[in-house]
Specification:
The complex is a heterodimer of chains A (530) and B (358).
Chain A (H helix, E strand, L loop, with lengths): L4 E2 L2 H13 L5 E9 L15 E8 L6 E8 L6 E3 L8 H12 L2 E3 L24 H4 L12 E7 L5 E7 L6 E5 L11 E7 L2 E8 L7 H5 L4 H8 L7 H16 L5 H30 L3 H21 L8 E2 L2 E2 L7 H24 L2 H7 L7 H7 L3 H6 L6 H4 L20 H23 L20 E9 L2 E9 L7 E5 L3 H11 L4 H11 L3 H5 L1
Parallel strand pairs in A: 1-4, 5-6
Antiparallel strand pairs in A: 2-3, 3-4, 7-8, 9-10, 10-11, 12-13, 14-15, 15-16
Chain B lengths: L4 H14 L2 H38 L15 H11 L10 H20 L15 H9 L1 H12 L3 H32 L4 H6 L6 H4 L1 H18 L11 H4 L9 H26 L12 H9 L2 H20 L7 H28 L5
Classes of the chains: A alpha+beta (530), B mainly alpha (358).
C-alpha cells in the first residue's frame, strides 16, 4: 500500500518546489486526478475528501520515491495550483485532470479539453456526474478551438482570466491526422509550418478515447483485466502483468515461481515483437518499404508462439489475477528455443538493409535531439529516455517478477537523436533474447494459477505498480474502498509523454523529420487516449 | 538487321498511289497517334505488373496472383476500375487548372515517348535536334504537377507540388548535362546518329570513364525526375499522403499514374538508347560468327530488353532505399551531382578532342 502524504493546496507549490530543488525529485512519474467525494459525518479525521490530485515523484539521482496528494472541497469552481512550470510533463496531465474532473490549474496556460469533445457537458470522472444524461450523440462536427483560458493568480490572491492563442491567424497550419499514414493511428497533429520548416506542433488527442478508466469503475476486478490489452496493443502482456501484480499486491497474494517464469518470458517475447513493429514502422515512415516485411515476417513467429499458448495473437488475454490463463503449450519451450538462434542469425539482415544504409543514417542521425534533462522533465521513458542517456528501465530501477535474478544490460545511448533511439530498440531485441535464454530451460514445475475466490475484493488503500512495457514505464494506480469494484483505476500512459515532447523535438526541423521522430518515439495511440 | 523503314515507305507509296499526298500524310499521322497510345497503354500495363512482381520478389512476397494465371489480369482489372470511377472535383479548387493538369502531364509524357527509336527505321520523331526536343518536352510535365498542386486547393498537394517543382527543375540540369556528354562524344543531337555511332560498340564502352560516370548520373537524375524512390518526395505517402495528386480520382489520377510509369520507361529507354546502343545488337569486334548470330535478333527486342533491364535497376533501387529529405535532396544535386556532371562534361570534351576514346 502506498503511503501518500497530504498537502494543503495553499502550501502545495512551496512543498513541490522544495521536493524538486532540495530532494532532486526531477521525475514526475504520474499525475492522477481523484474524486474522493463530499465529506460526511462518519469520516475518519485523517481521511481525504473533495477533488484532488495524486503526484508520484522520483529522483533520478538517488532513486528516492515519494507520493503526495492534495485536494479541494470546492466542487463548483475547484482550483489547484499548477506544477507545470516545475515538471513539464504536468502540463498535459493537468489538462487530462481538467477534462475528467473539472479542476482548473491556476497558472497552467493551456486549459482546453484534451480527450473529450469541446462541447462535452460535465466532467465524467466525478462520482456525481452523469455523462449519458447531458451528452447525446451529437451529429454536428466538433469545432477546433484555438483559444485557451489561463487562470492567473494576482499577488493579492484574486484570480484573473487571460486568453491565450494556440495558433495565430496568419500561420499556415496543416492537419497531420487523424487519418494519416504515419501517425500510427488516429493521432491528430496540428502543425504550423513555414515552407517545409516546423514552427509549432499542437497534438489533438481523443479520437480513440474509450473512457477505459471510467469503465473500470463499474467493473469487477477480473473484468478490468480485459481492457489492458486494448491500451497498448503491442504491450498487452506487460500492461496486463502490471494490473495483475497491482491487484495481487493489494490482496497479498504470492504467485508461484512457475508463474513468474512464464510471465517474464511472455513479457520479453512481447517486447521483441513490439520492437519488430517499431523497426518496420520507422522504416516505412522514412520511406523504405522493404524493411517492413522483414519486421513483420519475424514478428509472425512470436505471434504463432503466443497463439499456441494463449489462443490469441494480438489480444492475448493471458495474465489473470493469481497466475496465467492457461499452462504453456507443450511446444512452447521447443519453439522459443528455435526462435532464439534463428533471430540471432537473421538480425544482420535488418542492419544490412536499413541500419547501415547511408540515406537512413542521414535521415536519423542528429535529427530530433533530446537532452537528458528534456526527457526527464517530460517523463519520456522507455527507448526514448534511454536514447538520451537516462537509465529509466523499470526492470532495473524497481525490479519485479524475475528481473533481479536474470543477467541483462540496460541499453542506453547518449546521443539523444533518432538514431540512438532506434539503436536502443535494436539492441534491446538482443538483450531480451538473452533474458529468455536464461529462463526458458529452467521453468519450474508447479501451479500455473493460484486459486482465488470467485468474487475478488481488495482491501482499502492505494496501490501502485509499474512495469517496463514495450515503450516505457507503464504504471497502474489502484485506489480501493474495499468493494469488488475499484474506486479508481488509473493507467500511466507510456505514449502521452512522447506526444508531449514531440513539439520540443521537432521545432525548426522539416516535415519529413516529424515522421522520423514520430517513428523513433514509437507511440501507440490507444495507449495515449485510453 | 531488319529495317522498319521498308514497311513505312511501302505504306506511304501505297497510300499516295490512291489518294493525294495530303490525305495520305493525314491518315498516317492518325495511325501513328493510335499506335503511340496503344503502345503507351500496353507498356504502362506491363510496367505496373512488373513493378508489382519485382517489388513482391524483393519483399519476400508473391505479388498479385489471383486474377488470371500469375495475376496477369490484375492490372487490366485495375485499369477498368480506374476508367469507371467518378472524376471528382473539389469544391474550392481552381476548376480549369485542376482539370488541365493531368493532360499536361500526359502530353509531356507522350511527346517524349515519341522521340524514342524502337527499331531501325522505327522512330516517330527523328530530326537533327532530337535530344534537345526530348529534354524540352519532358520539362512540360513539371508544369502539370505544379498546376495540380496549386489547383487542388489542398495544403498537402501544394507542398507536394512545391517539392516536385524544386526537385525536377534541379535534377533536369544533371540529366541534361549527362546527355550532353554523349552529344559531345558523338557530335550529333539526333537519336538516329547517336545510335548509328554505336554500331561497333556501345557508348558506355566507347566513352569508357566519362561515359560510365554519365550513365550513373543520368540514372540518378532520371530517377529523381520521374519522382521515384528514393526521390519520391513529391508524393511521399508517409508524409504528404499522396502529394500533388491527393485530390484526383478516376482517370485523372490514372493519367498521373500512367505518366509516372511511362516516365520511368522513358528514362530507362533514353539511357538504353544513348549509352547501351538502343536497338543495336551486341557486337564484339573480332568475333564475326557471334556478331552474325546477334544480328538475327530483331532490333526492337534488343531495345526492350535493354530498357527493361534499366527499369529493373531503377525498381531495385526504389524498393531498397529509404527516402531522402528535401534539403538533402537539393544539396545532393547542387553540391555533388551537378558539379560532378560539369567536370565530367569537361573530361569528355578533353577525351573527344584528343581522340582518347575507343
Amino acid at each position: 500500500m502506498e503511503d501518500i502524504k497530504y498537502i494543503e493546496p495553499a502550501s502545495l507549490r512551496d512543498e513541490m518546489l522544495h521536493l524538486r530543488n532540495e530532494k532532486k525529485m526531477d521525475f514526475l512519474r504520474s499525475l492522477i486526478g481523484m474524486d474522493w467525494g463530499v465529506p460526511t459525518e462518519g469520516d475518519a479525521p485523517d481521511s481525504t475528501r473533495g477533488l484532488g490530485v495524486v503526484y508520484f515523484l522520483e529522483s533520478t539521482e538517488t532513486h528516492e520515491r515519494t507520493t503526495v496528494k492534495t485536494s479541494t472541497l470546492d466542487r463548483e469552481h475547484p482550483e489547484l495550483p499548477t506544477v507545470s512550470d516545475i515538471w513539464k510533463t504536468a502540463k498535459l496531465n493537468e489538462r487530462e485532470v481538467f477534462d475528467f474532473f473539472g479542476i482548473v490549474f491556476v497558472g497552467n496556460d493551456d486549459m482546453r479539453r484534451i480527450f473529450l469533445r469541446n462541447d462535452w457537458v460535465g466532467y465524467p470522472m466525478r462520482k456525481d456526474d452523469e455523462p449519458e444524461k447531458e451528452n447525446p450523440l451529437r451529429m454536428d462536427n466538433e469545432e477546433t478551438v484555438d483559444e485557451t483560458t489561463e487562470v492567473e493568480l494576482n499577488p493579492d490572491g484574486t484570480i484573473k482570466d487571460k486568453e491565450n492563442l494556440v495558433f495565430k491567424d496568419e500561420e499556415y497550419v496543416i492537419n497531420i491526422g487523424p487519418q494519416h499514414p504515419s501517425t500510427h493511428g488516429v493521432l491528430r497533429l496540428r502543425v504550423s509550418i513555414e515552407g517545409e520548416t516546423i514552427k509549432k506542433i499542437d497534438p489533438v488527442l481523443g479520437y480513440i478515447h474509450r473512457g477505459i478508466e471510467k469503465m473500470n469503475e463499474s467493473m469487477t476486478y477480473p473484468q478490468t483485466l480485459s481492457l489492458t490489452d486494448r491500451l497498448d496493443y503491442f504491450a498487452g502482456m506487460q500492461s496486463r502483468h502490471a494490473l495483475c501484480m497491482c491487484i495481487e499486491k493489494a490482496m497479498g497474494l504470492e504467485v508461484s515461481d512457475r508463474i513468474q517464469y512464464i510471465r517474464t518470458i511472455m513479457d520479453e517475447l512481447q517486447r521483441i515483437s513490439s520492437h519488430f513493429v517499431f523497426y518496420a514502422c520507422l522504416a516505412m515512415d522514412i520511406g523504405a518499404t522493404t524493411p517492413w516485411f522483414f519486421g513483420f515476417r519475424d514478428r509472425e513467429k512470436i505471434m504463432d508462439i503466443f497463439e499456441e499458448t494463449c489462443g490469441g495473437r494480438l489480444m492475448t488475454h493471458y495474465n489473470v489475477i493469481g497466475g496465467v490463463q492457461y499452462d504453456i503449450h507443450p511446444n512452447f519451450v521447443k519453439r522459443v528455443k528455435e526462435f532464439i538462434p534463428y533471430m540471432r542469425g537473421i538480425i544482420h539482415e535488418y542492419h544490412d538493409l536499413f541500419t547501415d544504409n547511408i540515406i537512413a543514417q542521414n535521415r536519423m542521425k542528429g535529427v530530433g535531439y533530446l537532452s537528458k534533462e528534456d526527457v526527464i522533465a517530460f517523463g519520456a521513458t522507455g527507448g526514448t529516455g534511454r536514447g538520451s542517456g537516462w537509465h529509466c528501465d523499470v526492470r532495473k530501477r524497481i525490479p519485479y517478477a524475475l528481473y533481479d535474478k536474470v543477467n541483462f544490460k540496460e541499453i542506453t545511448y547518449n546521443e539523444g537523436d533518432s538514431f540512438a533511439r532506434y539503436m536502443v530498440r535494436m539492441d534491446e531485441i538482443m538483450e531480451s533474447l538473452k533474458i529468455i535464454e536464461q529462463l526458458i530451460d529452467n521453468i519450474p514445475e508447479g501451479d500455473f494459477r493460484v486459486k482465488t475466490k470467485p468474487i475478488i475484493k481488495v482491501p482499502e488503500g492505494s496501490y501502485y505498480q509499474a512495469v517496463e512495457a514495450s515503450r516505457g514505464e507503464f504504471g497502474v494506480f489502484l485506489e480501493s474502498h474495499g468493494d469488488k469494484y475499484p474506486y479508481r483505476l488509473h493507467y500511466r500512459s507510456t505514449g502521452l509523454p512522447l506526444v508531449d515532447i514531440l513539439d520540443t523535438a521537432c521545432r525548426g526541423l522539416k516535415i519529413a523529420d516529424l515522421m522520423t521522430i514520430g517513428g523513433s518515439f514509437d507511440y501507440v495511440i490507444p495507449d495515449i487516449d485510453r | 538487321m531488319f529495317d522498319f523503314s521498308i514497311v513505312t515507305s511501302w505504306i506511304h507509296t501505297t497510300l499516295t498511289s490512291v489518294m493525294p499526298e495530303g490525305w495520305a500524310v493525314f491518315i498516317e499521322c492518325v495511325a501513328i497517334a493510335v499506335w503511340i497510345i496503344t503502345i503507351y497503354a500496353l507498356l504502362a500495363i506491363a510496367l505496373i505488373y512488373m513493378e508489382r512482381k519485382v517489388c513482391g520478389f524483393m519483399q519476400c512476397r508473391l505479388g498479385p496472383n489471383r486474377v488470371g494465371k500469375w495475376g496477369c489480369f490484375q492490372v487490366f482489372a485495375d485499369v477498368l476500375k480506374m476508367l469507371t470511377k467518378e472524376i471528382f472535383n473539389p469544391k474550392h479548387a481552381d476548376q480549369f487548372l485542376y482539370n488541365l493538369a493531368p493532360y499536361l502531364v500526359i502530353l509531356a509524357s507522350f511527346l517524349t515517348f515519341a522521340c524514342i527509336p524502337i527499331n531501325k527505321g522505327a522512330s516517330i520523331l527523328d530530326f537533327n535536334v532530337g535530344v534537345f526536343f526530348l529534354i524540352a518536352s519532358s520539362s512540360i510535365g513539371v508544369l502539370g504537377l505544379l498546376l495540380a498542386g496549386w489547383g487542388s486547393n489542398n495544403k498537402y498537394s501544394l507542398i507536394g507540388a512545391m517539392r516536385s517543382g524544386a526537385q525536377i527543375v534541379s535534377y533536369e540540369l544533371s540529366a541534361g548535362l549527362s546527355i550532353m556528354t554523349v552529344v559531345v562524344l558523338t557530335g550529333s543531337m539526333s537519336f538516329s546518329d547517336i545510335i548509328s555511332y554505336q554500331t561497333n560498340g556501345w557508348l558506355i564502352f566507347k566513352g569508357h570513364i566519362p561515359a560510365v560516370i554519365a550513365f550513373l548520373t543520368y540514372i540518378i537524375a532520371g530517377n529523381a525526375e520521374c519522382n521515384r524512390g528514393p526521390f519520391d518526395l513529391p508524393e511521399a505517402e508517409s508524409e504528404l499522403t499522396a502529394g500533388y495528386h491527393t485530390e484526383y480520382s478516376g482517370m485523372h489520377f490514372g493519367f498521373f499514374y500512367l505518366a509516372e510509369y511511362l516516365n520511368l520507361f522513358i528514362v530507362a529507354a533514353v539511357a538504353a538508347t544513348i549509352f547501351l546502343g538502343g536497338w543495336m545488337p551486341l557486337h564484339i569486334s573480332g568475333l564475326a560468327g557471334f556478331n552474325a548470330v546477334m544480328d538475327y535478333i530483331p532490333g526492337f527486342i534488343w531495345f526492350f530488353a535493354k530498357a527493361f533491364f534499366v527499369v529493373f535497376l531503377l525498381m531495385w533501387i526504389k524498393w531498397t532505399y529509404p527516402r531522402l529529405r528535401i534539403d538533402q535532396l537539393l544539396s545532393f544535386e547542387w553540391k555533388y551531382l551537378m558539379p560532378l556532371c560539369l567536370a565530367n562534361l569537361l573530361l569528355m570534351t578533353i577525351i573527344t578532342a584528343f581522340g582518347l576514346h575507343f
